[in-house]
Amino acid sequence: MFDLLRQQSSVRIDRPIDFPERQDSVNLLTIFLVIFHMATHVFSLSEAKAKLSELVDLAAAGEPVVITRHGKPVLELVRPRVARKPVDIDALRKLTERQPKQRESAGTFMHRLREDARY
Fold first, then answer.
1. Would the N or C end of the chain have less CB density within 10 A of its end CB?
2. pTM over 0.85
3. How far apart are CA 89 and CA 38, in angstroms?
4. Cα–Cα distance between 60 and 98 in angstroms, integer?
5. Residue 74, class by beta-carbon neighbours within 10 Å (0-12 exposed, 13-18 middle, 19+ buried)?
């Protein structure tokens, strides 16, 4: 199963997860699939120590990086959210005052657009 996953994706799998019990295996498989779909890069803690600058570059580029300890995810490196700049209300009003007014509401326009596209 893990060989198939390695071939079909760009996700790096350090080692297969051992499933000791059937009930635990369902939980572990769920965790694995969440990490598999959400994370682009998965590294063990020892690899992360050796490649920290590379992992920081990946996270800065917007790619999430998951670091595992003993096969379990313990840390996710992601790019920090950038604070939004406040909107200048006066400049926005000046910009929109010069634009022509719509003849119909946005809701009416979208309804008409959807109805026309059906036929």
1. C
2. no
3. 38
4. 40
5. exposed
